[in-house]
Amino acid sequence: MADRINYIKGQAEANTNIAITLTLKGMYSQSLTSYIRARNLFLKAGEREGAAQLLMNCAITYDFLGNDSLSLSFARAAMKEAKKLKLDSVVSMMLVNYVNIDASLSSGDAKVYLDIAEKIANNYKDVRTLMFLKQVKAATLLDERKNNQALPYIIQSLKMAREHSWEYHEMEGLYLQSR
Question: What is the pTM of this model?
Answer without folding.
Answer: 0.90
